[in-house]
Fold these 3 entries.
Entry 1:
Amino acid sequence: MKGLLMKDLMISKRSLLAFSAILLLLFFISMVVHSDYSLLGDGTLSFMTIYFTVFLSINLFAYDEACKWNLYALSLPVSKRLLVLGRYVYLLLAILVATCLSFAFSAAAGNLFHAETILQILSSIGMSFILIGILAPLMYRFGTQTARILLMGVFLLVFLLIYLLQKLPFSISGPDDLSIVFLVAAAFGACILLFFLSYLISCKIMEQKDVQ
């Protein structure tokens, strides 16, 4: 497992360094501007950090496919299920690190303890779980080229789901309403469940797939 995680870290090292440099540049610019409409003030940096994990997952699968990593890895004492588990654990760790950075950006903006900020960050985390949970089995089944084409459909599906959720008959009287807490907790739990189900589906796909 440790070797699989180190391999993914080495592959994504260049992307992580490039994205970190962009984040730092935008962060310093936002600190200089120091406005409610800056990237730091409106929470854009926090969202960018979390959503980067989605594109990181696509890059990891693309590199594996280009160098036929799965074929090589399975020649070692590594099972298909462990191969999938290593990828999901790495992406989960990436989401956790991105979440910590998002809260750090919010703290720098001075709005860490705002209920709206916390809900926005939790929504972004849930969205990452949903997108990765949907994309990963597709990339295991069809490959990255086809999955990239399906990515647009995934985004449309997610936005449609958000639109339908907004139409649900919930009566919200204020930020402390219990319905908000229940809805957020249920939605976040569903996202984590989807991520776990995605792992099981990916394991099933890999076990039935003839790796070449």
Entry 2:
Amino acid sequence: MTKKSLYLLYFITFLSMTGYGVVLPALPYLAASLDLSSFQMGTLITGWALAQFFSVPFWGMLADRIGKKPVLLIGLGGFGAAFLLLMAANSYLSLLLIRIIGAILSSGMQPAAMALVTNLYDKKNRSDAIAKMGAASGLGFLCGPLAGSLLSPFWHDCTIFAFRAFKPVGHSLCMDIHSRGSAQKNSKTA
């Protein structure tokens, strides 16, 4: 993996966590528009976390079977689809179901990205690359709620989708990483 590909993977991780965090300040507005209680609001956040917690082992086994890059692409696609489906939510049950399905589909994204870095770096450089992945993830999670809090009081209907416009960029970057990895693999076997 080239340095450019690694930076693209950092960017995808940053963008994914920004997209997750940008929703948090918008959820109260969405909850108010659907007349949700604070308990229901809490279950929307907890449901996402529990669904990811229980589905990650499945994605890990699938990544070992079909590869990390396809799981990363499925995770990115599921993450984007979950945000798009939020537009269709018109009740608590539909919102909870969309959040849980989105969490299940996207839960393979972070572990697959970390596994890519782990598999592609030798022991000497691996810890530095993993630390940078963690930093990109943490920075994205910090920037997401900040952006969401700045946008949600004014544009609460579109806050969820403000940073999702970058999703196609993430997909194309991931495809670039996939094609570079395949090219390097083919050059090593030749």
Entry 3:
Amino acid sequence: MENSNLKDLIEKYLSAYNTFNTDGMIGVLNENIHFRNISKGEVNSETKGIQEFRTLAEQSNQVFSQRRQVIKNIIFAGDKAEIAGHTWHTPSVVNTTTLAKRSS
């Protein structure tokens, strides 16, 4: 696959991700997707296969009321791509007990 085609798929995925469209995200992925989320140099989430990925995506949709991921860099290697990005999240639920402890 050409880099421009792969980049188009990545952009479609991110558009779906940013709008909480799980079916749109799944629609551009291979059945054998191996997904790893790396934060601060550590893998904090990993799935193998489309069903595990769907489960994680649907769980994540419940955690945030807003989110936006932006591509900083893409490294292409054959038919694979590694994406460095930045994500902003707004939690769906705020724990008022925690907030009260912080403000006292």
